[in-house]
Structure formats: structure tokens, C-alpha cells
Amino acid sequence: MTSVAPDPLPVLARKDFVSDQEVRWCPGCGDYSILAQTQKLMPELGIPRENIVFISGIGCNSRLPYYMNTYGFHSIHGRAPTIATGLKLARPDLSIWVITGDGDGLSIGGNHLLHIIRRNVDVVIVLFNNRIYGLTKGQYSPTSEQGKITKTSPLGAIDYPINALSFALGAGATFVARSLDIDVHHLIATLERAAHHKGTSFVEVYQNCNVFNDGAFIEFADKAVRPDRTISLEQGKPIIFGKEQNRGIRLNGTTPEIVELGNGVDESDLLVHDESRPDRTVASILTRMEYPEYPVPMGVFRAVERPTYNELLEGQIEEARSREGEGDLEALFAQGDTWVVD
Amino acid sequence: MTSVAPDPLPVLARKDFVSDQEVRWCPGCGDYSILAQTQKLMPELGIPRENIVFISGIGCNSRLPYYMNTYGFHSIHGRAPTIATGLKLARPDLSIWVITGDGDGLSIGGNHLLHIIRRNVDVVIVLFNNRIYGLTKGQYSPTSEQGKITKTSPLGAIDYPINALSFALGAGATFVARSLDIDVHHLIATLERAAHHKGTSFVEVYQNCNVFNDGAFIEFADKAVRPDRTISLEQGKPIIFGKEQNRGIRLNGTTPEIVELGNGVDESDLLVHDESRPDRTVASILTRMEYPEYPVPMGVFRAVERPTYNELLEGQIEEARSREGEGDLEALFAQGDTWVVD
Amino acid sequence: MTTKDEDEIQELDRVTIRFAGDSGDGMQLAGLQFTNTSALFGNDVSTMPDYPAEIRAPTGSLPGVSAFQVSFSSYEIYTPGDEPDVLVAMNPAALKTNLPDLAKGGTLVVNADEFNETNLRKAAYEDNPLEGDQLAAYRVIKVPITSMNARALKDSGLSPQQIDRSRNSFALGIMFWLYERPMEPTLHWFEEKFAKNPAVAKANATTLKAGYNFGETAELFPDHYRVRKANLPPGRYRNITGNQATALGFLTASRLAKRPLLYASYPITPASDILEELAKFKRFGVKTFQAEDELAAIGAAIGAAFGGALGLTGTSGPGLALKSEAIGLAVMTELPIVIIDVQRAGPSTGMPTKNEQGDLLQAMFGRNGESPVAIVAPATPGDCFNMAIEAIRIATRHMVPTIFLSDGYLGSGSEPWIIPSLDDLESFEVTSPTDAETFEPYARDKETLVRPWAVPGTPGLEHRIGGLEKSDTTGLISYDPENHMRMVAYRQQKVERIADDIPELTVLGKPEGALLVLGWGSTYGAIISAVQRAQSSGLSVSAAHLRYLNPFPRNLGDVLARFDKVLIPELNLGQLRMLIRARFLVDAIGLNRVTGRPLKIREVEEQIYKLVQQKAVSVA
Amino acid sequence: MTTKDEDEIQELDRVTIRFAGDSGDGMQLAGLQFTNTSALFGNDVSTMPDYPAEIRAPTGSLPGVSAFQVSFSSYEIYTPGDEPDVLVAMNPAALKTNLPDLAKGGTLVVNADEFNETNLRKAAYEDNPLEGDQLAAYRVIKVPITSMNARALKDSGLSPQQIDRSRNSFALGIMFWLYERPMEPTLHWFEEKFAKNPAVAKANATTLKAGYNFGETAELFPDHYRVRKANLPPGRYRNITGNQATALGFLTASRLAKRPLLYASYPITPASDILEELAKFKRFGVKTFQAEDELAAIGAAIGAAFGGALGLTGTSGPGLALKSEAIGLAVMTELPIVIIDVQRAGPSTGMPTKNEQGDLLQAMFGRNGESPVAIVAPATPGDCFNMAIEAIRIATRHMVPTIFLSDGYLGSGSEPWIIPSLDDLESFEVTSPTDAETFEPYARDKETLVRPWAVPGTPGLEHRIGGLEKSDTTGLISYDPENHMRMVAYRQQKVERIADDIPELTVLGKPEGALLVLGWGSTYGAIISAVQRAQSSGLSVSAAHLRYLNPFPRNLGDVLARFDKVLIPELNLGQLRMLIRARFLVDAIGLNRVTGRPLKIREVEEQIYKLVQQKAVSVA
Ligand SMILES: Cc1ncc(C[n+]2csc(CCOP(=O)(O)OP(=O)(O)O)c2C)c(N)n1
Ligand SMILES: Cc1ncc(C[n+]2csc(CCOP(=O)(O)OP(=O)(O)O)c2C)c(N)n1
Ligand code: SF4
Ligand code: SF4
Ligand SMILES: [Mg+2]
Ligand SMILES: [Mg+2]
Prior knowledge:
The complex is a heterotetramer, with two copies of chain A and two copies of chain C.
Chain A: H1 31-45, E1 52-56, H2 64-67, E2 71-74, H3 80-90, E3 95-101, H4 102-108, H5 110-119, E4 124-129, H6 164-170, E5 175-180, H7 184-196, E6 201-206, H8 218-221, H9 226-229, E7 230-232, E8 240-241, E9 247-252, E10 255-260, H10 281-287, E11 296-303, H11 309-324, H12 329-333, E12 338-341
Parallel strand pairs in A: 1-2, 1-3, 3-4, 4-6, 5-6, 7-11
Antiparallel strand pairs in A: 5-11, 8-9, 9-10
Helix pairs in contact in A: 1-7, 4-5
Chain C: E1 3-4, E2 9-12, E3 14-22, H1 27-41, E4 44-50, E5 65-73, E6 86-89, H2 92-98, E7 107-111, H3 117-122, E8 139-143, H4 145-152, H5 160-164, H6 167-178, H7 184-193, H8 198-217, E9 224-227, E10 235-241, H9 242-257, E11 261-265, H10 272-279, E12 287-290, H11 294-306, E13 310-315, H12 317-333, E14 337-343, H13 360-365, E15 374-376, H14 383-398, E16 402-407, H15 408-412, E17 414-418, E18 464-466, H16 481-496, E19 507-508, E20 513-520, H17 524-536, E21 541-546, E22 548-550, H18 556-561, E23 563-570, H19 575-584, E24 589-592, H20 601-611
Parallel strand pairs in C: 2-9, 3-6, 6-7, 7-8, 11-12, 11-13, 13-14, 14-16, 15-16, 20-21, 20-23, 23-24
Antiparallel strand pairs in C: 1-2, 3-5, 4-5, 10-17, 15-22, 19-21
Helix pairs in contact in C: 1-6, 6-8, 7-8, 9-10, 9-14, 11-12, 17-20
The structure holds thiamine diphosphate (TPP) (2 copies), iron/sulfur cluster (SF4) (2 copies) and magnesium ion (2 copies).
């Protein structure tokens, strides 16, 4: 138990972030790719491995911390944001990642997600959205489409689904993004952006559950159709999509419209993507563009700065200390009227 | 216990909805007015008293059911929406009102509020927003302003507040409105609209807690300044406000602007209020107009039709019955392989 | 208990087989077919599936092993057997994880084809167990199942993958031959199940027969076995799992009580089946509600009960913890909800697919304040049906939240169940007041202390309830000290008086003696079997099984007093034991296994012998 | 115990006064000033506030009555008195609700001005109780407080409303005269408190003196009283409430353990004070977090503990119910969090401002599975300080979630507290491993079975924990049956072995005898007082008070065995009693009051006499 002087920071590689635990998702599950990108990203961040913590709830997705060779906490269903909040407040020096699912984060854990986001606690939240409860073997989730037939909805789900990104924006999120399990470059780039954002970074990843909800996103996420049916949001650029890059999005009032470029319509007519708009309205409009009505926007929807909860808390402590001095415990004991019995 | 033939429907008056319980809010509390308007509204609805149920959580506001001479349930903190959901599913014939507060509904009960709204269960929800925890004597709430000094935030709250109406819209609310405790005509009219809406009607009422957060809304809600600092939303009309009715709201892209009428600006430039827009963007923009930057919109922000959860559930039962016939219990017992032992 | 007969057929009383393989190997299907066939044949049967916790762990891996155990017999049995007599192991991982359970001298049928290097490595075997002495204690039958199945189906037109997927039918065929089972029911089942895919149906039929013929032809098996029909009570039977019986029981209770049923639940292993099952019964008017969490689920049940319906919610241990606060509300408002807890191994997330009886004290005490509820616990899969009806009867007759304590072993285990006739089931009246003149929300029945269940929609009965303390009779809020004391006592006594409305505890065996083995819940089978064996060896031991845990049957104290010693086997550290000791000051002895597995007959038997050594009395 | 002296001054050993009035009447302030003055004077004091549940019920109404009871004495006392000797009633409602508690023959000081028709009606008096014989059993002193106060302040320049608001000071002045208290501390306090409003400070001073002078001048009181200084242990004292002591205790524990403190809580009566108190201590580096609910609060505490800080959360009964599932997670992950439960009357919402000891069994068992935690319970307001430190010491030394069971009576009641010196408090080492070579997350200390508290940020110790069952030593997920059994046993034994690390139970009185009165928590004062009285009457009775409830002190069994009978008074239906009976098979007798009120000395005394009748032995 002798502590040794730390070596100069070693250069880490992906393998340093692979734990010795055998990965136990179903073969073909989208979770593998998200894990791989996460492991690949870690060395890029330049954060010592021991300062990284992955915290999850319960669900297939929430097994991820076991596979990361960092500190990890596989907690209870829906509560990962609360544990992350406590940890961040106690240990603002750590880089904290919350792994959650559409059930874990939006069903049982909806309230905690709302509150961690509105407080802007400085953590990254990755929500694996497979639109199903995987671990409990195929019941519908809050992101399942209305009408979906599952074990618990044999006649079709009658709940109206939650849009995870709209929800996050509504909660006042300072960073909101979406990516796709199989679009590995986009995914790692998105996670990297999230890692560098100060405040709560909320990333939804569309993830295929090939056992209970296979092909949930295939209609627009399949490589062949992806350019035509999704949008890759790029900061400062007009929103253009399509294999031929010949279509774009224009705002008609507050309604997005798909337009063909040419014939009098040019890039200057298009909506220019700006993640940093102080107002969340445009980001919100983008989150509500859904296939097949619209191509599905992917990337960073919103990225703005706002003081984090943990900073503000530290600030108050410093302020109190500088104003009132370090606390004197014995003086505190003796506060108020005292008397002596001898 | 002999049951008698019901009399012809009696004409009820406000007093018929006043229970025999002494009202126990602090003198001067805004809750009195909301209670009074609610009691006044009831006879107008033409619903037999016995078919009305008020369900609340915990908080000063949640005492309201005791004062209504209807069926009532003063439940536990944050859970009223869940009880209301169960009751509505079991008894779609009842008119169900949920009474909640900024703490009850948006802190501990945020998740249930989210889910009842997204499901569009046919109930009215009235959220008394006094931006404080009243019953527990003055801690900040999720709607308290940042920086607010309370018992639990002696150096100022560092939470970023929730906007109740944005939250409701984000959850997919089909009816969203706001009113003010002291604006009694507006309040009763708003509650009446809510009562007639099919689906979840969400009404936020700004309510003064004169003991722990006195004057929280006075800067814009005081009668003297109200015409200049609030907007009374009217369906189909351009948004005009001001004592002189000389100012209006125009949308610049997605950003609302205050404009003076005259000098080349006329009503046709203004945003026309339309509660029934299928898309929630404009409603959302309106909910985020806050004093002092903007006048505060009051009234119905959104009112659209979507099948209710309870209807859809009844529909599935009917469908199953018409397709498979009334269930035969003994046949069900004997389902699958059976054998006889004699 | 083996008698040799002329035809190389050995006659056996009871056999336990475990099918074990990869999750993808269809072991549950093979096991179920064997079970149904045996039941149709007239044996008594009892089963226990053992799923992996992962959805689909990597093929061939240890955590990916899935197993199904079936015990069948010529006499009445109560458990799926302590240990299999025969283990079918479809790959090395299945062998590794299941071999420890196989009875010494037992038969091991292995799919020899799969014992290749890759699979051995995945199962962390250094050497091939099929070579060397490792398996010397067993009768090992190596069958190249993969290749024989492939050969049988080479002309089926199916892809190699599809062909591999019917290996389970080949293995099943061997077992059918070995135990003289008819193939027809399974052949019929293939036709139904794969109606849309006749090629697959045919392939399975072909390979099933191939397996059967292989058993007959190959000289691997010295003989085969016969297990005669059991002498079961007459009636029409079906096989039923506990969770199915639970769903049917509550559905039936709703019919008997003439009140509609709302089942509100949030999925959780091993309770999810009940929601999935009830969701299918829409044509019966059952409403199911998949809530956003467990708090919402019980809230909805309470709301439904306030509305005069049967408010039912179901979960497993962690979910019961989340429902704690709301159960307290139901206690205070005295509304008749029922809470199903299909217990699983804890604490915390624990081992979700494993079994335990760890929630009894949570059910009793897991709420703030003095907060008594009624508790019932089924003893067998089929008994879930009866106790579900009892739970509703008690809840509605006594206006009390009632907890139904099942467990994973009951829930997924199965047994033959005599299909009841509706006429044989007693309906029970549930009344609601209508007279505004005499109505008081908290006026109590003098005998039972029950308050009226007044329902919205009833003119003149408008009233308010809630979680604050109520004034006696009027139900208005009261902070009066003596009123509180009275109400606390009423709530407690109301529950205690349920004892007048439930059956007395029956003793299996003599009403007095050296030892009483007292149990509750799913340990029934193991306890009864052990006690019967000990009795037949002349030991002075009796058994009693509690299906009502709060209140206890009124004669429990008397029963206990008539035995020198009391043994309480439980799958926990002694929860019932604590209640019994505290209540009756009886020095009850515990037999506590907390392994995630069901109790074994042998474990109980050993304890019985320890406690009643040499004391054997002659049985007249 | 009254001795007449020459000056018409009666000497008393102990007096209990209750100030009762409308919520707006400032009764809490008057009571506190009387308390502080008495403490400064050298009496022992003990107090109990009684707030209405409503924030501000209508003026003059019954639910709007607010009261404050203070007992002061010339000897050591342990309770605020069973019943007041003097009742100050500022209006009819205050009289109505408080009169039942006044000792027969007691003194009643009423503000006669307020007994007008309106107020009488609000208090539901048919006739004016000041007229007629209703109050014949008491010494009634009618004082027109409202008008005399108004007259005293007619030149104060204050509005009539403001003037009325200082009526409490007039009443306080009378009491000061009656019991010979100095006015200076209060005059000084007015100056400080109303520094920004000198007119108000002056008015209060004026009317306080006017009240005092009225006492002296008017011939309403036959004599006045003297209560001499108590002979208290020497030291510097302050008055402290239990919730204040709790906050200070945890703050101090953080200093002693050299670990930062995070307090995460959701407001709830009567625990909110602790959050409010700790929120003031930012300069000490304490972080407070007002969470969105109780589940989030405990989650944050668990997160902080995972990070190596002291994770503390606090609530009352319904909130503890909500934390159940997460406590289970802390049990499984063996993280040292502390959960404060300031108990209140249940079940459900119950009576939030009233007292009860209803959560002991919830604390013990309110979780799924076998889920043991440590439990401590302070005995007096000041003891909250000590037990807070003990809670942290146990949690961190034994890596176990620890529940701190306070209650509303302790939390808001106060007593003089000897201000400790930091040097006298033992600091305790809390270590975390750093050596990657030897680290194993679930390797256990051989003696204590404690696992290491490895903290993120430590290179090479990266590991994963969670709610699934852990493999012994490695902490990896395990579904192995025997491993589960072992881990369940470890967790249980780890908690049991804390018994080696806590003090033995001490017996007050002889170590053996006819009766032991065994208590826990806030009933301490009543029990000790009753036992001391009975002892001084020569009864063979001793007392013992449990401050450690799980595990019990190691000598508890021995202590119990040395008494013929055991009486367990509790403010519940017998929760400790059940644990004692189950564990020791002792036929302990309960004294159970569940009224929302603290236990009375008399109630305990009566029971003692019933159980030790005639058996009095002479005391040497
Ligand atoms: C308190 C509690 N309730 C329910 C469960 C059962 N449960 C585990 S994971 C899960 C849902 C998982 O869905 P999701 O978050 O979408 O994760 P996925 O498996 O799809 O990745 C549920 C209901 C639980 N573990 N704990
Ligand atoms: C489980 C639980 N936690 C906490 C409380 C304490 N509590 C009661 S009301 C309340 C907040 C009330 O705030 P709000 O909903 O805004 O109502 P208001 O009193 O302001 O009308 C709290 C924290 C409780 N009763 N139950
Ligand atoms: S069930 Fe679905 S989400 Fe879970 S591991 Fe399998 S494929 Fe992935
Ligand atoms: S505390 Fe505030 S909200 Fe509550 S009753 Fe009083 S004034 Fe109203
Ligand atoms: Mg999912
Ligand atoms: Mg509020």
C-alpha cells in the first residue's frame, strides 16, 4: 500500500480502455459499435483513465460500463443521472459519462434526466435508443411508435412516443446531438463533441436491437438510403442533403420545407444550421423532423454555454469562504447564547 | 340502504360545490381565488357532482380537494397523475381534475406529469405555480428564479428554472394554458376551456404565496401594469397588448419582437394567435416569452385534438371483443394441450 | 425402486431430465415438448426452466447456457427434482455449468460434435472432458448429434444454419425413445407451430424420428425405461406455469367479484409474463396499463380501486421497494388493491433470473409507520390460481391492500393443473354503499372493522380521502392524539381479524410429534416430499405450509405447540422464522439456503434426520 | 416539593410552562426567550414546540394554534414535562386545544380580551369558559393582555396591527416576573433581532417591562416562584435542537474523518431543518444539494460515496420508503452512505408534524432481499450530535449504509448542550487503497469483512461495481449459487461484527432485578425519569437505552437475562419488542403509545408499578 510517484502521463490506446470482461450483448446488437467508438474515443480525450467514470442504469445498454476499463457503476433502473450528479458535485475533477436507454432514461428515469439537464451538471449522457425494452425481452418503450405490436401491446401500443431530443431541449439542454450506431465516423465525432462540451451533453444514439426490434431505423439509416433520408448537420452551413446534395431545408415561417436546389432556389434560401443560437426554437424544429415526412437530422442540434451546476456550487463555497473566512467549527458549536456552569 | 330512483337532474349552484371543511390556507393566499373560481365553474359544466373527482398530491395547493363537495383524493407527493390515470382508465365516465403545484408536479412528480401528458389521458391538470415550496415552509422550487434566496438556498438558487408550459408542450400536450389567481374572469374562462377539452388539459396558474414568496408575479400581474406587461391570447386574433392596445408581437424568423402599431406597422404584420396549429413551434415560442424581456402571454396557447389514451384503450377492448367475441373463461382455462385422468 | 422386466425395459417411478445447451439451441422447446408428452401420457410432471440473464450471450459461452429440467413420475410429485438423473448437454459450456447438478451415476448424453477446440475454449475447459477420467462417475453417452442431424436433413432444402437449429429435435427423439414416449403430440405440434413454414416442420419431424430411431438402433443404451402413469386425481388437466395461473386467477377473481380488473405494471423479470399474459385478455374486458415506472403502476391501481374496480399491480422485489410509499397510502385510505411480488434473488438487482424468498419482511414492514397489509403466498404453480382469487377476496372483503408473494421458481415453473369449472368456484359479494343518509366514509363494520367502499358516481356519497390521518367514522383529517391511537389499532386489528375469514392451517401427518416442518411459498414441493419420505421411514415428523402469512391462520399457535421442535426451511436468512419466534416465542430452527436455486428435497430430509435422530417411532 | 419562604416566594424544583396562542401570536419566540433566559440563569431546561400542520390557518381557529412548552428545573431533567403546570392561553382556541393537558390545579393565564364572541365561535365554544364553572379545577388568572399591551404602546408610533404583534412580549413579561427571571437577555435580543426597526425593538422592550410590572403590581398572583440553579455538569452550554445537533454532528464527522460531506435531500417535515442548517455551512466546504425527489437525493449520496466523499441523505418516513430501492444498491455495492430518518407519525402522510417511532422495522427490513444495514438512534436532542458522528464512523469503517433514526420530537425539541472541544473528539481514520498490485474490489478484511473503499482518480484501481451479485473478492458479476450464499452471509456478518466496534449497553441502576425498562430513541427522557422515580421509591427496576439498533450491543442478551421482566416502551405497536422477542425469545412486554405525542413519564411509571407491584425492595 505504498504510494508511488506517478509516471509521466502514458499515451493510451483503445485497448487500454477495453476491460477484461467478455462482452455479452446479442451478436449483431448495435451496442457493440457504440462501445467500440466509445473505447476508441477515450485515448483522444487525453484524460487519465482513472479520472473517467461510466455510470449506467439498467438495460442492455447499461452493461457498457463493465466493458470499459475505467471506473464504472452499473446502478439501478433510471437513477444513473442522480448518482452522476452526486459524484460530479463531490468530485468535479472527474469526467463522467452516463449510459442510459430509452426505457431507463425516458420511462422510469425521465424525471432525473429532466433535472440533471436543467441543472446543466457537467456530464455526458448517451441514450441508446432502440425503441424497445431489450433486457426484459421486448416490451414497448416510450420511444416505440404508436401501434407497435410487442409482448405487452399485442393490439398495438397506444402511447404517443417521446422525442428524446425535443425532451432534452425542453429541459433546457445546452448540448443536444444525435447519431447512429452503424455510422461509426459520425458517432465518434459526435461523442467527441459531447465530451468537450462544458455542461450536460445529451446524445441520442439510434441503436438497432436485432432481437426484439430489428430494423427500427433501417428505412432511413440504411447506408444505401441514408444520404437521401437523413441530414448531416454542419455548423454554419446551409442544410443540404441528398446523394446529389441537391436538396435542402428552408423555413417557411416556423415550418421546415424540403426544397430542390436550382430553379430559382439556391443555398441562400436555406436554413443555415447554427448550434449556438441562444434561443432553442430552431433546434427544436429540427428535432421534430421525422421520417418519412422529413429526412432525419443527425449531428449536433444545439451547443451553447451556460454555467454548470457544479461550477456554481463551487463558486458559492469559494464566495462564502472569501466573505466569511474558512469555517471555524468550534465557533459554530458555540453560536448563539451560551452560558457556563462551573 | 334502499336505493331510490334518481330525481330529475337538479340545477346546481356554486354552494353545492363547497364542502363543509373549513378552508385552511394562509389569509391572502392566492389559492382561495383558484378554489373560488373552480367552485363557480362546476355548476356551469352540467356534470353531476358525483361524477367529478379532484385528485391532488401534497402541498398547500393539494388541499383543494377537501374544499370541493365532489369526490376527492389527497394522495401522496407527486403521484396524483398516476392515480388519475388509473381512475380514468377504470372509469372513463368520470370528470377528473388533478391539482398539483410547482414542487409536486415539476419536482418529485415531473415524470408522471410528462407521461400522463404524452399519453393524453382525458383529465384536467391545474398546476398552482407559486415558485416556492409553500407547505414545507419556503424552500426554492423548480420554478424559482436562479439566484433566489430561500431557506435552502441562502446564497441563491443555482438551479435553472423549468418553464411549466414549455415542459408541457415538450411532452406533447394537446391543451396548454396559463392564467392568474387574481384575474378571476380570465381564470374561470380558462378553466372552462380546459374542462371542455378532450385529452389532457394542462393549465398553469400563477399563484401568489404571500407568506413565502410574496409578489412573485406582481411586477407584471399587478392590475395597474397588467395590460402593458401581459398578453391576453385570443384565438384567431393578432397579438396585441398594452393599455392603449397599441403594441403587438411580430415574429422575426422564429424570434418574437415587440412592435408599436402605427408608423407603417399594422395588425397584418402581427403574429396571429392560433391555438390549433398542428405544429407546436409557435406555441412554444410564446411560452418562452418572459417578463421583463417580453409581456407574459396568458390564456390558451395550444388546443388540438388527438385521440385520448382512455379512448384508445376502450377501442382496443371493443375491437378484441368484436373480433374474438366476449371472452370465454372456461375455454381460456382449457387452452393448449389438455389431457384427462379418470 | 427399479424393477427389471423381460424386455430390457426398466421400470422407474420417477425420472428427472435436464436439457442444457446454448440459448440458441432450443432447450426450452425440447423440455416443454417432453413435459407435455409426459403429462398427456399420464405421468405427473413438474418443471423448472433456467434462463441465462443475458438476452443472447455469445454462442457457446458459459453465460449463454439455457436449461430446462423436467421431472415425471408414476406418483404425485411436488418438485422438478433435486438433481437430474439424465443430463443432455448440447455443448461444452452446457456440460460445464450443469454437470455439478447431475446425480452421481447419472446418465450424460452429450453432443460429441460440439466438443471442438473453439467451444472448449469458450467453456474454459483446458482438456476435453470427453477424453480422460473426468466423467468417470457418470454413464456417458456420446452422440454426434450435430452431424447426425445434418445427415438426416441433408435433403431438406434448408440452409445449414436452419438445419443446425433442429438439433434439439434430434436430442428430443433420443429421449423419447429412452423413456418410451409417443412422438405424435410433438409431430402434431411441429405442424401447428411451423404451419407457415412446412419445410421446417418437416425437418423437425424427420430429425425427431431420426433421433428416436438412433436410440433404438444404436447400442449405446443398455436398455430403456418405463415410467408408468401416475395415479392422479381425476379431471381434465393442462400444464400451467405459475405466472399463467396468476394471470388466470386474477382474471377469474374479477369475474367472481363482478368488478372489472385493471392491471398496472412496469416490466420486470420474473414478473413481466403476467403483464404480457393479461394483455392478451382484452376480450374479457381486462385493462392493462404499462406504466412509466413502478410508482405510477401502483398509483394507477390505487386510482382504479378508488373507482370501484379491482386495482392490481405486479412487480418483483426492487419494484416492490419502489411501491412502498404508495402501499402506505392504500393502507391509510383502506382501498383494496393487490400487489403481486414475483420474488427474485436480491438484494438490489441481485440475480434477476434466480429465485429467492427474500421479500417477506419487506412485504410485512417495508413502509413508514404502522402499516399492516394482508399477505398471501401460493405454494405451487397451480396454486397461484387459487391464491390470486384469495388475494382479491381478502382485499375487497377487508378493504386492505394485499400482497401476493410469488417467486421466480413458481412463476416460470409448471405443473399439471386440473382445469376448474367456473361453477365450482365460489363467487364473493363485494358491495358498495348507496345510501347517502347513513353513509360515513370511515364507519366500520363491527365484526370486521371494514369501512365501506363508496364509489365515485354514487350520488350523495361525495367524500374525500387521502394519506393524512383520518378521523374515526367521518374520515375527515384529524390530528387528535387518541383518534390516531384508535385508528392505528383499528388498522392493525382489521388485518388480524382476517384470520376469521381464512382456513385453518392443516397439518400433513400427525397433529403432534417430534418435529414440525413449517414452510411457505415455493418450498412446498421440497418440504412435502422430504417429510413424506421421512414419515415413510417412520420418523415423527409432520409438515404444515403457510399460504396466508399475514395474518397467520388462527390455529398456528396451537399447531406449533404440539411439536417438540419446529424447523422452518426458507430461501432467505430466516424471515418467517423471525416472525414465528417473535410471535410465539418458539425456538424455531432455520434451514436457510440463499443460492438463487430452489430448495432440494435432500436438504430438507437431511435436516429432518438431524433433528429427529434415532427418535423414529413406529407407524401404526 | 414546595417550600414557602418569607418573601411570598415559593421555591420549586421544576416548573413546566406552555405558551399557547394563534400561529401569529409569536408563541415560539416567547417560549424560546423564556428557555434561553432560564438556561442562562442556570436551570436545566427542556423544550417541545408544537406547530400546527397548516402554514397559517385562519386567525383564531383551532387548527391555527401554536404552542411551545418549556420545562426548567433545579435538577437534571430529561423531558419537557408530562403536563404543563402553567398554561398561557392567548385566545379561546389556544385554551380549548391545550387545556386537556394542563395539570389539575395548574395555573391558567388567559388573555381575557380575546374571549369575545367571534373568537369563541371560531374555537367552537358555546359559552365563554371564563364565565361559569368550567375552569374550576384550575387557578385562573384573567389578564386583559391585548388592551394592556395596547395601552403600554399607545405612544410607540406603531400601527395597531404592529402593536398587537407584541402581545407575546407582555405575556412573557408576566412569566418573567412570576418565575424571577432577568429581563436583560431578552431586552438585548430585541435590540439585535429588530436592529433594523428600532421602534419595534423599543415597543417589545416597553411591553415586556409592562408585563413584568403588571405581575409585580397586580394582586392577581398570590406569590411568585423561584427555581434554583440546577447542579449540572460543568462546562459551557448552549441550547440546541436535535436537528441542529444533527447538522453539527455530521459536519464534525466530516472533519474527523477528513472526508468532504455532500448532503443531498428533498425537503420534508420534520427533516427540512437539517438541509436548511447545512446549507448555511458553505464556508466549511459542505455541499448541499436539494434534489428533485428522495430517490435522486439518495442517488446523489451514493454517487458522492463512490467518489470517496461522505454521502449523506436525510428525510422522514415516506421519503425513507422512496429510498428503499437505492439503499439496497448501497448494501450491494457496500458504500458508506448515511441516511437520516427524522421519523413522524404514519402510516402514509400520517400526521407530519407529530411524533412517532414507526420506522424501525422499515429501516431494518424495508428492502428486497437480504439487505442488512447498520442503524443508530440518538436518545436526546444533544445526543444527535454524538450519534451523527457514530453513524459516519460506522458507515465508513464498515462500508455499510447506516440509518440514523431520529424523530420529530428530538429534531425540534431542545436541551442544554455542553459545547464540545474539537480536541476531545476522536478522529477516525478512513483509508482508501492505492496499490494496484494487491487491489481487489471485494477482498475483505478478515476481522471485519469490510471491502476496500477504492476511489476514482486512483490510477490502476479502475473497477466496476453495481447492483448485480458480486463475485467474492473480484467483485465481478456472478450468478454462482454458492458464491451468492457466501456473499449474503458476508453482508449479514459484516453488519453483525460491528457489534465489536460499538460500546456495550450500560444499565442505569442495578445490573439485575425485577424489571428492566428497555428503550430506544426519543423516549429516553420519559423512561429515565420514570425509572429514577421508581428507583427512589425502592422498586427493583433498572433502565437501559439502545442507541445502536443494528447490530445490538454485544451484551444485550446478558443484560436481558438478568431481569425477571422486560418492559419496552415505544411510540409504535412494538417494533423493537418484536426484534427482541425474536432474537432472545424473551417475553418482553410492550408499552405502546401511538398518539403522535411524546411518551409521558407518568405512563412509564404506571407500567412500572403494575409490573413490580408490592415487590419493592429496600435500597441500601
Ligand atoms: C426498478 C426496476 N424496474 C424494472 C426493472 C426491469 N428492467 C430492466 S431494464 C428495463 C428496460 C430496459 O429498456 P431500455 O432502457 O430501453 O434498455 P435496453 O435494454 O433496450 O438497452 C426494465 C424494465 C428493473 N431492473 N428495475
Ligand atoms: C415523499 C414526500 N417528500 C416530501 C414531502 C414534503 N413536501 C410536502 S409538499 C412539498 C412541496 C410543496 O411544494 P408545491 O408543490 O409547490 O406546493 P405548494 O405548497 O407551494 O402549494 C414537499 C417537499 C412529502 N410530503 N412527501
Ligand atoms: S436484446 Fe437487443 S438491445 Fe439487448 S443485447 Fe440483444 S440485440 Fe442488443
Ligand atoms: S404558505 Fe403560501 S401557498 Fe401555502 S397557504 Fe400560505 S400563502 Fe398559500
Ligand atoms: Mg431500449
Ligand atoms: Mg409551490
